[in-house]
Design a protein that fits this description.
homodimer, Uridine Diphospho-n-acetylenolpyruvylglucosamine Reductase, domain 3, 4 domains, about 40% helix, about 20% strand, alpha+beta, Alpha-Beta Plaits, about 525 residues
Chain lengths: ~525, ~525
Amino acid sequence: MRVPLLRPSLLTERLSFARRSLPLTIRKGISQSRKQYRALSPFVELTSVRHPEIKRGSYSRLTDKDLSVFESILTANRCISDPTDVEPYNVDWMKSYRGSSSLVLLPKTTDEVSQIVKYCNERCLAIVPQGGNTGLVGGSVPVFDEIIISTRLMNEIISIDDVSGILVCQAGCILEQLDRYIEGHHLTMPLDLGAKGSCHIGGNIATNAGGIRYLRYGSLHGSVLGLEVVLANGKILDCLSSLRKDNTGYDLKQLFIGSEGTLGFITKVAIACPQRPSSVNVALVGCQSFADVLTIFKMTKKKLAEILSAFEFMDTETMTSVFVNLGLTCPITDSPFYVLMETSGSNGNHDEEKLNDLIEELMTTGLVQDGTIAADLTQIKYLWSLRERVAESMVKDGTYCYKYDLSLDLSVFYDLVLEVRKRVSHIPHAFVVGYGHVGDSNLHLNVSSPEFDPHILSLIEPFVFDYVASVSGSVSAEHGIGIHKPMYLRHSKSESAVSLMKLMKQTLDPHAILNPYKIFTS
Amino acid sequence: MRVPLLRPSLLTERLSFARRSLPLTIRKGISQSRKQYRALSPFVELTSVRHPEIKRGSYSRLTDKDLSVFESILTANRCISDPTDVEPYNVDWMKSYRGSSSLVLLPKTTDEVSQIVKYCNERCLAIVPQGGNTGLVGGSVPVFDEIIISTRLMNEIISIDDVSGILVCQAGCILEQLDRYIEGHHLTMPLDLGAKGSCHIGGNIATNAGGIRYLRYGSLHGSVLGLEVVLANGKILDCLSSLRKDNTGYDLKQLFIGSEGTLGFITKVAIACPQRPSSVNVALVGCQSFADVLTIFKMTKKKLAEILSAFEFMDTETMTSVFVNLGLTCPITDSPFYVLMETSGSNGNHDEEKLNDLIEELMTTGLVQDGTIAADLTQIKYLWSLRERVAESMVKDGTYCYKYDLSLDLSVFYDLVLEVRKRVSHIPHAFVVGYGHVGDSNLHLNVSSPEFDPHILSLIEPFVFDYVASVSGSVSAEHGIGIHKPMYLRHSKSESAVSLMKLMKQTLDPHAILNPYKIFTS
């Protein structure tokens, strides 16, 4: 049995089918939410008001003299202090956190960052490094009046080596633009994520971003070859090696990967880029249960092995959110669970043969009832949009989203979604979805409601984090700790690890000026 | 044109041809060396005598009371103090370094290591952690009287997860035994190296070992998911996460990967193991110049892409060493350069088609004059032995070997071998070979002579390190710094990096009891 390719006529037919077949209760819930958030203002409560337990550290307050110093380093037009212009930098992309900074600095060079940070350290002025501001735990926005240093103007590509595949660039380069640039060199970026159109590579590294190709290309701890970092005292740490192998002493750059801007300010990056695959296939299949998703995963790993580059799952609620809120349509029969798989390889015929064999086996065994393989780039992009635009669909028109990014053993992976759904089942318009990177045991659990509601929060937290700790999972698989989870750090880290983390922080940033209130509770 | 498979009759014929065709001068040099080292005693000079510039730190001296404390922790039979029994632990595998320790401790558990290290820290007794003692820079043997703590009895496999592929084990497990164990779970270790039969996984991680599959599976910084480490104060740092993704705070374990036992004692390991390939092919081809090796590499990367798992080169002198010293024979026509390439994939037919296409193209273009694809596992092992046994061949019968493990841009990669060969050309029996991991820009440059000769050393060092620094390479790609290269650390690391490395060392090991004299000059 072969899976039919996606043809326009079929697509239209299926889409209308998909629309018709949405469970009525779910459609109603979402429609109600949409009506409500039209009426909501875009107001985002100050983090310091929403979290009164967080107290401002004993940092200096910004003075006119400070501003004139920064203007002397950067010129006035790269020091933003008009409140209206500063505001977008104060609020995170999810509209969950809002700081009250009155100054955004836009350096272009490492030396400028160094001068700024050195001055702030001497003056005991707190700072928050900010990249594309696409983080999901409030790590890149201020909590109080921290000065925002943005990498927006640090976007120079320094070098690319065709043979070794090593890219060197400034921290403010946008991920998607880098990928487009190196495409001409037959290379691809070793990470890819929904926010690629605006996230900065420096922010990706500070967050240790995972994303949809982690399964294939692994962690940034492996891909990042070198970093240049401005330390809290303003000194420039040059670890910008662009060698695939270098065992000369401690691999210091690793400390900054995933440190969320609390140990240093990343200014330059050297990263190993793999060969760009000449053949990419994407398939979407539907199945009946999460147990079937796991069986499909095992079979897929075996059959696709080295060409498997993504294995994502979405539950039917996730897809409903995308369909209703973004107007996307389902190219296959509605199913309780969906799997999106991608292959990337060097020989189109071989890859298609492997993928077709797999899909045939999945349908023959009855694990999959319907599925489609994208026939061209447009269809590939369309199938991916069903997965990549989930985050966007969950906050459409100002809806508030409680987001959880968890690592869990696959044997208990989806149980948590069911548990949370049960806990909020009596709340009107609370909508629970589960999706994520099954290949990396990484679950994204999202709960949306028309606006932030402490009662809903109390039903979810600390329940979710306690559950994760009880099965030795991680309370943050890829998003980081930020301001969202410091109180749950010990759910996933031993006391000995937290002590050593604090020792590292004290050693590298004794005045704690770098991104305060993040990662640690105090 | 198809490459003939290796058949026994052809093999015999080719081997005799290979033997006949060895350049006379090279054969003569090697024969002379072999005669000489038969006459040499196995005596290895004390490192403290050979390097009088290294002064013993102000550590305590071992007393009978100390010994009785260790015996109370471990029982007497796991405290080796008989000089004859201690001696093998004092000398490194390369027979380049010899310490004068009088005590070897053999803990079995983390708790025992913790008690020992805590006591040593309080008493200011220096210690050296030792795994399989297969390191190549003297990192795992004492310089003076440091107490040796061996992981030999810490060899328990704790768990293996079939679905996620995550292995958890004690640090003293032997790499090859782990690979055999997980073979039954359709998994493979993400690293492989010549010393696999005796090296310990803890030592691999402490060294950040690279090896022949680095090209495919990348760095241990990506594969190692968790570590348990005993810190200098005896406290147990639990970072033994076995999750593929965990972004909860700083990734502390990274600090210990490649720290050569100077920051902590690794006791347990969690490592992600990839799917074991069901199809492995190995080909050996000969070519005329190193420029051709590079062209072949570019074509191979493009054609084999995701199934390429190794790309190694050996010059004719390297192969001569293996043939003459180990009695191995060449299955293809003698060539100035040889390339050994390996594919690992999930579909034998696809892999063979890709490899055959490549070899055909290489021969059609005239880049390759002769080559062979191994027909079965025995032949695969044989072809690999030509590469893996180079290190052994260079120290056969006590010959001294000056070993260099360098990262260099491919454009200047082999020039260094030619330069060094020129510099020692007037020294009888000095023999220079170049081989290594072209795919990772990692050159192994070896010079052998019948015995250690300071004059030869002065011709090679600091020349080699200066050359590497002048082209922004690394003076240690994968072997580490150990006792061999502390004075050249700054050839590959910036002053800012060395300062921060020292700060890390002082912070984590204030009494400097862990593996002193290694990495840093003071």
